Amino acid sequence: MALGLLAGAGAAALLAALLTERQLGDWGWRVPFLLTLPLGLAALWLRLRLEETPAFRRAPAAVSPPGREVAGAIALGAARIMGWAAAGYTFLVVLPSYLQSTLGASLQQALIASASADLGFAVTIVPAGLLSGRVGRRAVMATGALLVVFLSLPLLNVLQDPGTSHTVKGLAVFGAGAVVGLMAGPGPAMLSELFPTNVRYTGLGLAHALSNAVFSGCAGLVISETVSRTGSVDIPGYYAAATCAVSLLALNTTPKRKAGSSGCG
Question: What pTM does this model have?
Fold first, then answer.
């Protein structure tokens, strides 16, 4: 996912540098979509060839937990990744349009900023996932959420300051993406550990889809409309910080991992 976002942002930034604004609007915007077609077909082919793991096939049949218990786990999982969904979409997707429409950046500057954020995300997501296997999911995800709570507004202030160099702004958005990676790395494993094997796919999928549909899918609309109504250019920071604060509360319910346990800690 991280490399896909980085490739997309990089391709868009490259096209913006090579093509005129008219060319980009007429046909250039279609090029990245055409490039992904063979990659999508290759991914589908690989997925259809995958078999269940031996560990899954050896897992004994389990009695399905009560529906209320599963629903509670889905709601808790959605709350735990709320910050990842909202901050990720805010810093990795909404940021280019925010820089253009609110801060007056050029298209090329906005796309370069987006690529920088995606690079930070790609750099940290795998190490964060590996680290969470050693120190616990909660510790790594809570660190990322806490950093968003305290650094969202300072980040926007750096971007809003016309006297700040492009290098510093680039490092700021790189850091924003890196912080999101701290939540995204352990996130899928944390969700899977909430559910027993026989309902894991459904529970994980619903929790992830619910959180992303509400807090990612609506982020652009909520942020742009609130900025328009209030005139405050700090709204993206408030949105990311508020959702991460809720995630912190939900993550605080995660029990500490016992020795030898595979549960999230």
Answer: 0.78
